[in-house]
Amino acid sequence: MNSGDGASHLVGTVRVKRGLADMLRGGVIMDVVTPEQAKIAEDAGAVAVMALERVPADIRRDGGVARMSDPAMIEGIQAAVTIPVMAKARIGHFGEAQVLEALDVDYIDESEVLTPADEAHHIDKWAFTVPFVCGATNLGEALRRISEGACMIRSKGEAGTGNIVEAVRHLRSITGDIRKITQADAAELFDWAKQLQSPLGLVQEIAETGRLPVPLFCAGGIATPADASLVMQLGAEAVFVGSGIFKSEDPGPRAEAIVEAATHYRDPSVVAKVSRGLGSAMPGLEMEGLETKLADRGW
Amino acid sequence: MAARKSAAASDSQPLIGVVALQGAAAEHVAAFRRAGARAVEVRVPADLDGVDAVALPGGESTTMSHLLRTSGLFDALSDRLAGGMPAFGTCAGMILLATDVLDGRPDQRCFGAIDISVRRNAFGRQVASFEAELATDGLDEPFRAVFIRAPWVERAGDSVEVLAEIRPALNSSTDGVPSSVPVLCRAGPILVSSFHPELTADDRIHQIFLDMVGASLTR
Q1: Bridge partner list, B166
Q2: B133 catalytically annotated
Q3: Whole-angstrom distance, CA of residue B110 vs CA of residue B100
Q4: B56 half-sphere exposure, CB direction, 13 A CA radius
Q5: Which pTM does this prediction carry?
Q6: ipTM over 0.85
Q7: Would the CB atoms of A84 and B60 count as touching at under 8 Å?
Q8: Between chains, do A26 and B23 touch, taking CB under 8 Å as contact?
Q9: Which of chain B's residues have a Cβ under 8 Å away from the Cβ of A4?
């Protein structure tokens, strides 16, 4: 029997980058700020953790410039768990992204939750071996991020609010336009590309397949098992929970319940069972009261 | 396309249950249907009714291990595996079918359906994930294998047939890295791979498994 030659290992291919996103499907990715929280997340069945210094609710409260986390903090979390560890870079800040790649993080979130570093350009994500996830509020934004090399798209929602309304708006906008594009004729696809300000090739691909070329996850405002069930039924393939777990009264059981709901979202009796007695969810915020809408960041 | 073919697949074709608690289950379902079998997703013990064989997909083995326990599927699957039901595990699925796991979580449970010791994330983190041409016993042409934070087989028992192995990357800095590690193994009705045949359009490894299922059904 022949052995494969170690020199012929191809790293950072599209298949390898999108492949990790495929492996996370049906799972829950949790924001954590300490190794102890990362362990709680892993114990509860998280498929990955997002290592950051402050959860979005605190970033929103504290104000000021929000940046990439301290490498020592990210390394502490990498040492604490065996599941993938993601970290956030500012929009357009390829310098931060290079640091995160050097730290061997498993996915980089080019995130509107941090203060943008570039008001016109996102990171050229093709230049990296590590894969990127980016937020989107609509299909055009999603396709622009994919054309820049993003290998996973998540709804932006409105991070740190515990309010699901924006994530629902973004998911419905993305999946609704995908459905319309599958009904469009060849000539109409040119107009779709123009309206969405997106590459024609990607629009044509969606017309053919009826789905984004990369996995579509949901983020922004998920606080309960029923929230997870709702967005999975609306077409999300996995969920990110930011402040919703560790800003709640009893994080461990809530984390576990959201994991169950993401798997058994088609079965309301399971969602009902796991929703019992979880204590208070994180306190939520109404959109009208927000000074800053994080979802408006990104171009 | 897959749906149309599956509708055409006759009831005499084996029914494969793809464990769909988390991970790339849909890709396995599509691959089995392309290869001419019937396939259903399995989330609770009742979903195993009428299933001839199971596939455990890639994903996070710690998460699946947790969900197998809470859904009651762990015991239901253990019983069926003990009764000789064929099973195909890819990546996390390979870890779950193994006898023991190195670098896993202490509470991680495995089925012990194939006598191998598996090292989790052995090839490294995501930046070390790779694809490579893999020479495979029983296949004329190499298989394009996609390895994602992949495990490898550190020990294979005497009953285990190694169908493919690979050399870890040359730039690997870890001490004591073996020169070659098994990544596709078979023992009785169990087939396991470190890589993800479900992520490529090449269904030859799924076909190897379907041949094993066919052999077990006619026995």
Answers
A1: A4, B181
A2: no
A3: 7
A4: 34
A5: 0.94
A6: yes
A7: yes
A8: yes
A9: 132-135, 145, 164-167
